Structures are given as structure tokens and as C-alpha cells.
Amino acid sequence: MAAFQEDLDPIWDDMDRAMGQLFMMGWEGEEVTPQIRSLIADYGLGSVILTAKNLKSAADTARLAQELQIIARDAGHPVPLIIALDQENGGVNSLYDEEYICQYPSAMGVAAAGSPDLAYEVANATALEVSSVGVNMILGPVLDVLNNAQIQPLGVRAAGDDPHEASQYGIASMNGYKDAGLTTCGKHFPSYGNLTFLGSTLDMPIITETLEQLSLGALVPFRNAINAGLDAIMVGGCAINNKDMNIMHACLSKEVVDDLLRRDLGFNGVVVSECLEMEALNVDIGFRGGCVMAIEAGCDLVLLCRSFSVQKEALSGLKIGLENGMVSVDRVRTSLRRVLKLKASCTSWEKALNPPGLKLLSKFHESHLSLSTRAYDNSITVMRDNNQLLPLSHTMSESDELLLLTPLLKPLPASAATKFLSEGKATAIDHDRWMDRGSIMSGEGVFRELGRQLARQRRGKLLHTSYTANGVRPTHEHLIERASSIIIVTADATRNLYQSGFTKHVSMMCSLPTSTGKKKSLIVVSVSSPYDFARDKSIGTYICTYDFTETAMAALVRVLFGQLRPQGSLPGSLRKVAKAQKSRQAWLVESFSEKDVNSLNTLIQTVSKASIPGSPSPLWGATALSFSLADPSIAEAHFVVRNSSTGALYGFCATYATATIGHIGALFVDPSKRNLSIGHSLYQRALRSLTSRPGIQSIKIGTRIPAIYPGVPSTEGSVPRLRRWLGSAPLDSTRAGGQSGAAAARRF
Length: 748
Prior knowledge:
Number of helices: 27
Structural class: alpha/beta
Distance between the termini: 65 Å
CATH superfamily of the largest domain: Glycoside hydrolase, family 3, N-terminal domain
CATH architecture of the largest domain: Alpha-Beta Barrel
Number of strands: 27
Radius of gyration: 31 Å
CATH class of the largest domain: Alpha Beta
Strand order of the largest sheet: 13-10-7-6-3-2-1-14
């Protein structure tokens, strides 16, 4: 690639040519139109943005990019075009081609996987794919911090609400893009993560945080990415109103671009304005004046996405500004130098005119598919499973029916369905054809496929219907009555409040005992923002997939049926809260004594009364004396967790040992104190006691000794779950007769 030279070539003395390099423009249509051809050939347009409305397939995109570059070359452009693309993954992809372009999780989905290395891999693979079709700039990474995540439409496009995590994953993605040869453009400065919306398209969303608050939060990822080598930054189209600033449009403000971004944060790269085709800007300022303001504020590339008339108005505005002295020649040359330096880093005529296309895409498609599956598998997050409903293969019998309730959603913007159906010529057969194919399908289609996958797991025992803002209808009530377990899918329920209301209603219905005395199981799955029910503890089992692509839904099914262990965790502050909640508390475990007899009898009665109606408690009829054998051939050691102030027992564990075998004969916890690690603490103490005895070769759960609790209860669905808990609990490695406790435990 050509080296960048500080001194401009005399060819740039032509100010019309120079000004054309300061714009990035797009158009609507899948072919080169006379309008975009004129902008490149007649106005010297130096950068083009491609959107989903321009792109049909990978092959067509490569052909289109090449044609645009040929137009520029033939028109005498000294340097190739920047061709930019939004390809954020998740639900925001401009380029879709199921045969060559892979689908990956959103930024938040990748962050949920907990691996910056994975973020790098995904970004690098994405960049390799889009660069193969002639793209040389990616409009990413997203560096916003979701300070008010529940109401922000940015949603899963951002990594989360922790500025340091957003930095970590943003920089990893940036490096992945750059190492594949793309130039990067972080967005949306200063932040779209905590906007106040006034409700009208004529009102700009507003940042109300002070500069100090922004510096400690929203600006952290931008500052760190700048230090790590970010090429360009997009300044957002928002207002700022705080004690430090009163700004109508951030990307038109010197205070934001020249002062805050360049002077305070030290950014010397290319600044791209948000698309100026905003209704609010048209009403407040006008496109011609807005263009001049953007350049004077310090923007190097003014973005105008669609309208040819608006684009010509902006071009004429800059020319008038230059002629009347509002914009200086030096100001144009300063931005021109930055743009040319950026182009020199990412393209050349040889590269621009010869995109590798399908040949290169075919080479790494298989490995990218594997990466896609791994990324989605690692991102699926089970935030709560308080009632231990997962996996369904262990908690549902073959005769039980499963009900799937899904919302009606619009197709994702880059889907084949969107492109085909938007033409308005599709028949019912065509509609079904598109609903049944592709990595990104319409909401209805992808949930239909989810239903098919669940039905295969359940051997056809699946009920599936959709729900809308009309709420719970008689059809829903009938299906809920039939089903024993219900899965509700939500997508941004905090903004689509009908989904929240519907889910709450069904949750209430499931909490009521049925005629058999059992409550129905409810699983809620968020397929977009994880904040839908993140802090709503009334939803006992809550899973997050971060988007509703086909690959995400396939991973979800494997998690639901125990074929995939969920590894994701909610990013940002929610991850920290979840870790704190899951951290094990070490309870003081003491030896059982005669003074505990009355308290143990009370505990036994409490546990027995909490049994499921119709299922007799294994402790029914037992007393404290039931656990005392007084047999000299059997060693006994029983343990309790007690409240030393009141004498109440929270948990009890009985152990017995013969010559070579140790037995955990009973372990139970007060129902009101469960999920607090009391059982875990008792279990660990029992293992240490048994493995410390000389001669013990194995440990068994339960015992055939009469009158002793027989181990794992046999209530339906509980055996596999308890065996997993007992088998996976971390064990001490105290030596016992030459054998470690861990080794002995493996012989359960």
C-alpha cells in the first residue's frame, strides 16, 4: 500500500476534488444508480457506505464494490474509495449470505461468553469475510457503555454497562478487525448508552450526564481504544444538556469534536459524523448549514446515507462555506490529510480493483462456521434456575406436554426474508420457503424452527403458538392448562411492555397449584436484551440468548435438554452480581449432640411438611432417634448447622462407617434456608469425616441399614439432578488409607 505523505500532492489543489473526499454517502438499490455514479464521478465522492438495501449476496457485493472502484478510477480519483459497512453481528448485519457469510453473536453475546480472545476471533473472522468482498472500513466496534441498559434501544449491540469490560471487548474486536486489514471506526461518541428520549422524531435524544460522569464511565472505552490505535470515531447525533454543556447536536459541536475528543482525549484520527439525514437536523438547521457545522466542528467525513437531493445540498453547502470564508482552505486540507492517511493504511488500487471474493470466502467458511457455533454455545446464559427445571430431559416425563409461547417479531434487517418479502410479490409458498432457510430468518420463521427442534426432542409432544399485545387469550389458557411446562420467549420486553405483561400473567397462572397439587414449570427465554427479567426474582428460571438467529436457537435447545452446559454469564455489573450470588458461603458445621434432639425433631417436621402434595416425604415418621443406631460395629458421626443464639437447626447430615465403606445416610436442610450453601457445607464436612477414617475405600449415598434415610429420594425428575449435584460438588483431597477423598467420591 502507498505510504502516506504529509505534503499533499498538487492534484489536491482542486478544491472540488478535495471537498469530495470529506463525504461518505450511500444510496438505495442493489445496482449502481445514476445518482451514486454521479456523486463519485462528478462530485469526487471519496467514501461510500453500503447497507442491507444494497446487498444481495457475497458475490454481488464483491461485484458492486469493484464496480464502484472502477467508476472512481475511470473518473480520475487519485486514491480508491473507502467502502464502509455495518457488520456488528447479532441482529445488525448489512451483508447476508448463508453460503459464504457466517452469523456470530452480538457484542453483548460475545461478552457474555467471558473471553476477549473469542471477541478477537469473531471480529477477525467477520473482517476477513467482508474484506473479501471489497469492504475496507467497518463501522465498529461499538464502544458505548449501557449506563441505563433497561431503556436504551442500543441493547445487545453494546458489550454491557461496565466501562472496563466495554473497553476490553471493544479493543479485542478492534484488533481483530485491524489484523484482517480493515480500518476501524468506533462508535457512538460520546455515548448512546444513557440517552433521554423526549418522544418525538423532531427531538434529539439527550445526554444529561456531566463531563465528570462521562469521563468516569462512557468515555473510558473511547479513551482506551484511542490509546490502542483506533483509526476513526463516529460522533453521535444527540444533544448534550448538563451543567458543563448545552449542545444541540454533538457531531456539529466544536466542544465535542475539537475540544473533548481531540484535545482532551488526544484523538488524531478521522472523525465521522453521524448520518446527517435526521429530521431534527433538517428542521433545526437544514442540511446545507449542518454540513458546514460538522466540518467546522472538526469532522473529517460527513455521512449522508440515502437522499440524492440532500447529498447535493450538503455538497453545495460546503462549497458555499468555503467560498464565503466560513470554512477555510486549511480546514479542508487538515481533514483531507487525515482521510488520505486512513486510505493509505487500508487500501490501494491493486487491492480495491481485485477483491478476492468467493474463492477466499470458500477457503475459510468451514472454520468460520465452527467458530460461529462455538461462540453461540459459549454465550448462552442461564441466569437463574431456582427451581432446578433444567434440563427438561430430567424434569419432564415422556407423557408431559411442553408449550412454547413466542412473540411476533419483524425480520432482522439483513435477513433474506426481509429482502424478499419487502418486494411485496411473495406468495404464501414463497413466504414459507424463506421462513425455513437461512441463518437469519424472520421472527416468525426462526421461532417456528425453534418449535420444530423442541418437538424433535420431545418426540412431538410440543404445543406452540404466538402471543401479541392482545394479552392472554382463551387459546393460551387452554394450552397452558394442557401443558406441564411452559417456555415463554421475550425480545426487549422492557420496551415492548406487552411481552412483560403477558409473561407476568402466565407466571401467575403457573404459580397456582393444579388439581394434582403440582405447579406448572415456567422457563422464560430472552432472545435479545438480557435485562428483560434480569432482576425479577419472580421468574425462577431465566435464560438469555442475546439474539434470535438460527444458530442461537439451536444452542438454546441443546441447553434446554442438557446436551450443552451453559457457560455464559451476564456481562458488566450483572455478571458481578451473579458471581456474588453464586459464591458459596462456608457455614460453621458442628457435631450433633443430645441438646440438638428437640431442634432436630422440629427440623424433620418442617422438611416433611414442605414435601410436594401427594408425594410422601422420605422423612415421614422419622424422629431424631431414627438416626442413632448404638451398634458398636458401625461408627456414627452426625453433623448440624445451627443458630448458636436460638439453638434452631438449619441442616442435618448423618454419616456411618463400617470397615471399608462410608455412608452418607441423610442430608436435609430447612426449606426456608435452601440455596445458601448449607447443604454444601454439611456435605463437605461429611466427606472429610469419612475419608479421614482408616480403611475407608468408598463412600456411598444412602444405606440399607433399617430406619435410616435411604439416600437420594425417588421423586420424579430428582434423581439425575441430585446425582449431578453430589458428583460435581468440589471435594477435599484429605488422604484416607492411601486414597484421596476425591478419588473415593468418584466411586459413588
